[in-house]
Amino acid sequence: MPLRVVVSGVGGRMGREIAAAAARDPSLRIVGGTVRPGSPALNSSWTSLTNVAIAAASLETDPRAFANRADVAIDFTAPAATLSNAEACAELGMPLVIGTTGLNPDQFELLEVSAKSIPIFYAPNMSTGIAALTHLLPMLARTLAGFEIEIVETHHRHKADAPSGTALLLADAIRTEMGSAQARHYTFGRHDNAPRRPGEIGIHAVRSGGNPGEHVVILADEGEEIRVAHRAFGRAAYVRGALAAAKFVAGRAPGMYRMRDLLDA
Predict the structure, then answer these.
(1) Is 135 annotated in the active site?
(2) Which of 135, 155, 191, 215 does the annotation list as catalytic?
(3) Segments of the chain assigned E as strands
(4) What CATH code would you report for 3-126+235-264?
(5) What is the Cα–Cα distance from 150 to 169, expressed in whole angstroms?
(6) Which residue in 159, 185, 204, 247 is the catalytic one?
(7) Which end of the chain has fewer CB atoms < 10 Å from its terminal CB, N or C?
(8) pTM, 2 dp
(9) Is residue 179 very low, low, confident or very high in pLDDT (cuts 50, 70, 90)?
(10) pLDDT class for 143, splitting at 50, 70, 90?
């Protein structure tokens, strides 16, 4: 029996592509989607939203409308909407996949409260390539312990949060693995005349054009430099990851799951 999916934020770019891809996957069935109250998408057809005819699917403003109708929800919205959707899913006992970026620490703590009731799969970047980088970069940083580290990320002009959640994910992977003995701190952009401080990880954001996502990690000393880059050619990698996450998290025990859990399964 196909896994029944509801897509939160189906009026947005990622939501539309996820719904379209899920509709083409025989192991999944789209039962509906949510949009913000007052959204023009409420008056749209599924065909106009996704270019795919989806039968018997509805558009709602609250995930609670899908009680007993969906097996898993996928959320690519904004932090406030994500928290509201997580609370609703926790009430319904509905597993949730979250790809929303820009969550602050307090908001993430609220997500962890919901994860006590339901399984939540959270990844600011759903691509397997980025997941692999989170394994690779700590090893490089340990091997090249004296090297300075900078991260430069580039996205399209419409991306609201900066730096990207992926840039922070990569930086966190490096800092966590280095441990307290070599603790590093983040510098976001450079606005003064001071020299680079020891232990910094510089993080820089570029917003222009239609770039779907590029992250370059630079490790350098005075004599040489290594650059590790990941480039997305479109949203397809993120969509594939989100659907794989939905299949993975459905039926899991309550808790917070990451891309690492999916890759290790």
Answers:
(1) no
(2) 155
(3) 3-8, 28-34, 58-60, 72-75, 96-98, 119-122, 148-155, 185-188, 200-207, 214-220, 225-231, 255-257
(4) 3.40.50.720
(5) 13
(6) 159
(7) N
(8) 0.85
(9) low
(10) very high
- Boundaries of every domain in the chain: 3-126+235-264, 128-231
Other Cβ atoms within 10 Å of 151 Cβ, number: 24
Contact 91, 113 (CB under 8 A): no
- Residues 4-41 have pLDDT tens digits of 999 999 999 999 999 999 999 999 999 999 999 888 88
Regarding the domain delimited by 128-231, which CATH topology (the fold level of the hierarchy) does it fall under? Dihydrodipicolinate Reductase; domain 2 (3.30.360)
Give Cβ neighbours of residue 62 (< 8 Å, ≥ 6 apart): 34, 88
Taking Cα atoms as reference points, which of 97, 115, 133, 111 lies closest to residue 260?
A: 133
Told to judge if 185 belongs to the known catalytic residues of this protein, a careful annotator would answer no
